[in-house]
Amino acid sequence: MRFSGLRVLREGLTGNKGWQPHWRDPEPKAEYDAVIIGGGGHGLSTAYYLAKTHGMTNIAVLEKGYIGGGNVGRNTTIVRANYFLQGNSEFYSHSLKLWEGLEEDLNYNVMHSQRGLINLFHSDGQRDAFVRRGNAMAVQGDDAVLLDRAGVARHLPYLDFDNIRFPVYGGLLHPRGGTARHDAVAWGYARGADRRGVDLLQNCEVTGIDIENGAVRGVQTTRGAIRARKVGIVVAGRSGQVAAMAGMRLPIESHVLQAFVTEGLKPCIDHVVSFGMGHFYMSQSDKGGLVFGGDLDFYASYAQRGNLPMAEHVMEAGMTLMPMIGKAKVLRSWGGIMDMTPDGSPIIDKTDTGGLFIDCGWCYGGFKAVPGSGFSLAHLMATGQHHAPAAKFRLDRFRTGRGLMDEEGTGSQHNLH
């Protein structure tokens, strides 16, 4: 079933009775060429690119809940490529290029909106840091525009520019940055993978990983044993738990990151806005709700609800930056489980177990990385070679200390990234 303007018109005129399910609900096979553990954005995109780019169609994606029920549906939907360090910079640049062609590729509206992202700075030192970052982005081939105070005011006239503690000095504009609809991304990749023969197995929790003679042979699940000689672990905040089934201890801590949505408002915020003196970021959804978030809850947890002190902290930052939002009513909040690495950068690598691959450690950057992550892990699983844009995301950098990518310069404390 392909989507088109004509198809939408025809269905609208005939009672919308011709739509079909977006993907099948198959029974598990006894054996697959590859199994992906995790039916979130990264797992679904991996399966999609394995099928589309590498011709592997005998693949299963195992999701313990339902498609789109994990972190891919629990984030603030931001898409950007404004990273500074080599390794991160080229990867996110590649991922953004995939975003820009994603809707045509999937024949699905993921509501990708390149509305522009503005990182504000509030001191001379921050200005210098963003000048460096903007230059690095330009060298990488991405877009960056340095704005002075007047330039920010033209884009964001509603900010509190004269705040005594945090006056706005300027900002770094990333015009190609923006947002996408998080659950639509999951549905689009799920539909695309299913069309290419991938089995999407929902309510199929992995309970064990079978290893023989140093190589993976399959997995145990709540829907029976499944054999496979290639297995990818792509489970975000649950990475440490699933890897432990294979006898691995990952350098990962899991923390909760809350997100918030207000009631629907008339369009008032045209960009993604990031506060430079507090971890706060906001955009406005197509339905009118203000979508925003801030810091982690700062303690290790697997709970998907967050806590009230951090909610208060985020609201304080928002009011400091843009007091005009004070009367907006917050409708709901939720928590995503972040898999935090010691250097704040991800892992896409083989493990010491033959045929077992790991994709984790996305910290705050998971949603924007969905296309690039899946493309790179699929390349690694299919060819055995690292995809060039993700070549520095090695697991052994935490054992050797070589190649660490501390993007924010905050050291080896997981929850500071």
Task: Note the topology.
Elements lengths: L4 H9 L17 E2 L1 E4 L3 H14 L4 E4 L15 E2 L8 H13 L1 H5 L10 E5 L2 H17 L4 E4 H7 L14 E5 L3 E2 L2 H14 L3 E3 L4 E7 L2 E7 L2 E5 L2 E3 L5 H6 L8 E12 L7 E4 L4 E5 L4 E12 L7 H14 L8 E11 L6 E4 L5 E5 L9 H14 L13 H4 L17
Parallel strand pairs: 1-12, 2-3, 2-13, 3-9, 5-15, 13-20
Antiparallel strand pairs: 4-8, 5-7, 6-7, 10-11, 11-12, 14-17, 14-18, 15-16, 16-17, 19-20
User: What's the level 1 CATH class of the largest domain?
Assistant: Alpha Beta
Radius of gyration: 21 Å
User: What's the CATH superfamily of the largest domain, by name?
Assistant: FAD/NAD(P)-binding domain
In total, the number of domains comes to 2
Tally of contiguous helical segments: 11
Reported for the largest beta sheet, the result is:
8 strands, mixed
Helix content: 25-40%
What percentage of the residues does DSSP assign to strands (E)? 25-35%
Spatial strand sequence of the major β-sheet? 6-7-5-15-16-17-14-18
Q: Looking at the structure, what is the overall shape?
A: globular
Total number of beta strands: 20
Distance between the termini: 42 Å
Low-pLDDT segments, ≥5 res: none
Average predicted confidence as pLDDT: 95
CATH-assigned fold name of the largest domain: FAD/NAD(P)-binding domain
Task: Outline the structure in words.
28% of the residues lie in helices and 25% in strands. It has helices at 5-13, 41-54, 88-100, 102-106, 124-140, 149-155, 182-195, 239-244, 308-321, 370-383, 397-400, and strands spanning 31-32, 34-37, 59-62, 78-79, 117-121, 145-148, 170-174, 178-179, 199-201, 206-212, 215-221, 224-228, 231-233, 253-264, 272-275, 280-284, 289-300, 330-340, 347-350, 356-360. It has 417 residues and is an alpha/beta fold. The chain has 11 helices and 20 strands. It has 2 domains: 5-12 and 23-78 and 182-251 and 344-416, FAD/NAD(P)-binding domain (3-Layer(bba) Sandwich), CATH 3.50.50.60; 114-178 and 253-340, 2-Layer Sandwich (D-Amino Acid Oxidase, Chain A, domain 2), CATH 3.30.9.10. Helix 2 (41-54) links the parallel strand 2 (34-37) and strand 3 (59-62).
